[in-house]
Amino acid sequence: MGIGSWFAVLRSGLFLFCALVGSNVVAHAQADDLVAKGQYIFALAGGCACHTDPKGTPHAGGRAFPIPLGTGYSTNITPDKETGLGAWTDRQIHDAMVKGVSRDGSKILPLMPFEAYSGMAEEDLRALIAYLRTLKPVKKATPPLKTRVPFVRSLATPVYLKVFGRFSSSPPLAPKSGIERGRYLVDRVSLCGDCHTPKNSMGVPNRSLYLAGASAKTGFLGEDVPNITPDKETGIGDWKREDIAELLISGTKPDLDNAQGLMAEVIQGTPYGYKDMKKEDALAIADYLKSIPPIKNKIK
Ligand code: HEC
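Above: inputs. Below: predicted complex with heme C.
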């Protein structure tokens, strides 16, 4: 072989080597991008704060929530293989989030807001699942459900969902800006209504009081949740859009008080939360809140 053909072999080898390394670098960069995006969705979702027991390890579940005639517990969402999501496939995590079906096919109680998440965009779900896989695994079994409702998973939950369930189908992509972006975040990712819309004794949201607040006495959460519709008297009609964005990002209200309780938890996150929201997303939420019908509903 002449020197020229050796050169050609060397050159093509070098080319192949660069292509392989290059594609590997690209694949890694894409995976990193997906995880970074997932971390942002996790922040917009308030750090999935329900899965952190304030007295326990982050994301390992076990936080108690009242359900009709009993108590339910949030689950461990860390990648622990035995007690968390480590042995679940992406599809199984996806179906738990949007259909309320667990890995063994059993029903997840609608305490987990899978009806709302059923409208989360596929691109955001995919990123969020990739991010969840990067959490530190924690071994912690979820306490069994306590309730006096018979067959709560096998019978009561399916019947409840048949009667009250409102599922959507995930769009492939999320709205990127404007009021549509705000509506998407409020209803599908940040789930403001999970706390700010009152529920009846069966846990069904009262949609005629959408975002109009819930009182500690009648609500499930044990604290007053304010009316955030644009009603001037009983809601936040006199807040400017910048005031709402400021509260979401810094926790400070226009009267310079700080948000407390559950609101502080979702702002602070675990450790990512609403505080990590981009200004433009906080403003999109504010613009959407300003566009919904004002509802007179005095909480305190
Ligand atoms: C986990 C429950 C929970 C979620 C989720 C939640 N909030 Fe709140 N929010 C509260 C509680 C409780 C308060 C009252 C805090 C206080 O008294 O300081 C509050 C307070 C507020 C206030 C202050 C209102 C006032 O009159 O002082 C605004 C505005 C607000 N939330 C907007 C939102 C928006 C927008 C979202 C979604 C992006 C949201 N919240 C999600 C529980 C929640």
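The beta strands are 64-67, 70-73, 146-147.
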